[in-house]
Q: What sequence folds into this?
């Protein structure tokens, strides 16, 4: 992926530079969403500031584990952990812990920066914690709350109705733990955490995670590419865009298509929608439902399929607004911020952390799954003189204020160095 721009911190001293181990389940170019894209942007920014970075990540997207310069794709990325035997899970856990210890011994970092660990063996995190090195978590997705309670290996250690099995588990626990293998969710102790939004922080603290120091850093965006922002020509057709890596029920693409059907029925034939993304393999029923609604809208709704992240960003100036229709709370959707940066107003459902960026100065909102309300907001943007210009300017100003990459990098540096006070 392209990394335009460079960020520098004036007056940096050599002694301030750190060796940072970044750990994540995914890393570009092998991606599934915005979490790992933002990770790569922060890594590149820290590297350009002079820090020495090594990335330890999963082997998703490649045939076998391998090392690519400072990117070590060695950890077992395994969404099918539930299909493995107890012995195979145990081996996977031991191997992950051994890989982490080996990388730590070779690299000797000053700080460890943990991103998304979904589908990776929990013992990888345990080995990081046991190292005695400062570990800082970056939480955008709630993998700590949703992943570990259902992890196949950890689940096998949960108490049961059989007292003999429970006794055996207690005897084995200390032995397995001495081998560096996690057996309980409580083994994972996220003490220092950077949350992407206030919503994510509240969610995790209310869930009782043992967070001692927490920070809210919404992340930064790469400096925009050179070129004019989108300008609307009076009387030109309206072009809307919907973007998601996967078109799932939680992402609400059906709501967007149903809203477009309402607009056509009400005579708004100059409004068009491009849908960028692919239906997930397990979404056949949902795909059939969406396509049935879209079938008579071939002149209005176009399915563009998936596009590389950089291509999506490059196409934003072709559109007049982004539709964000999620009905499931996200940490802080990167898609919304990136669209706003190019001057696109957003018509979105303010669920989860999205409410912290879908502000009235830059967006129009509607309740999740309410296609009638979405249609009304599209009509408002279409009909109200001056509204598009006001929201477009507000979007650019909001992103410049809240998504400064320099600010995000400076705060992240201070947190990793142990110099930033909890917010």
A:
């Amino acid at each position: 992926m392209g990394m335009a721009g460079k960020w520098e911190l004036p007056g940096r001293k050599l002694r301030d530079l750190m060796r940072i181990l970044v750990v994540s389940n995914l890393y570009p170019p092998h991606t599934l969403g915005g979490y790992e894209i933002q990770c790569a942007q922060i890594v590149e920014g820290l590297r350009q500031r002079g820090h020495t970075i090594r990335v330890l990540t999963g082997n998703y997207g490649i045939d076998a584990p391998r090392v690519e310069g400072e990117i070590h794709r060695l950890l077992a990325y395994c969404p099918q952990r539930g299909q493995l035997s107890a012995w195979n899970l145990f081996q996977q856990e031991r191997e992950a812990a051994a890989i982490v210890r080996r990388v730590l011994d070779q690299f000797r970092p000053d700080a460890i920066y943990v991103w998304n660990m979904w589908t990776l063996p929990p013992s990888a995190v345990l080995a990081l914690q046991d190292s005695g090195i400062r570990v800082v978590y970056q939480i955008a997705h709630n993998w700590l709350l949703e992943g570990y309670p259902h992890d196949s290996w950890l689940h096998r250690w949960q108490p049961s109705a059989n007292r003999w099995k429970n006794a055996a588990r207690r005897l084995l626990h200390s032995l397995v733990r001495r081998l560096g293998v996690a057996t309980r969710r409580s083994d994972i102790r996220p003490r220092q955490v950077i949350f992407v939004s206030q919503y994510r922080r509240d969610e995790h603290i209310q869930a009782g995670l043992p967070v001692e120091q927490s920070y809210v850093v919404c992340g930064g965006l790469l400096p925009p590419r050179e070129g004019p922002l989108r300008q609307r020509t009076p009387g030109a057709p309206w072009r809307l865009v919907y973007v998601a890596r996967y078109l799932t029920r939680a992402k609400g693409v059906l709501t967007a298509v149903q809203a477009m059907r309402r607009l056509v029925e009400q005579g708004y034939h100059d409004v068009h929608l491009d849908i960028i993304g692919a239906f997930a393999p397990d979404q056949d029923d949902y795909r059939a439902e969406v396509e049935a609604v879209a079938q008579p809208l071939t002149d209005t709704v176009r399915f563009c399929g998936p596009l590389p992240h950089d291509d999506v960003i490059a196409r934003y100036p072709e559109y007049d607004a982004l539709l964000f229709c999620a009905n499931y709370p996200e940490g802080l959707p990167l898609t919304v911020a990136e669209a706003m940066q190019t001057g696109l107003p957003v018509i979105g459902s303010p669920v989860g952390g999205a409410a912290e960026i879908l502000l009235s100065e830059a967006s129009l909102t509607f309740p999740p799954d309410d296609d009638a309300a979405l249609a009304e907001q599209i009509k408002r943007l279409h009909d109200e003189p001056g509204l598009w210009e006001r929201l477009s300017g507000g979007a650019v100003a909001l992103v410049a204020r809240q998504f400064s990459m320099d600010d995000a990098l400076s705060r992240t540096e201070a947190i990793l160095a142990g110099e930033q006070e909890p917010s």
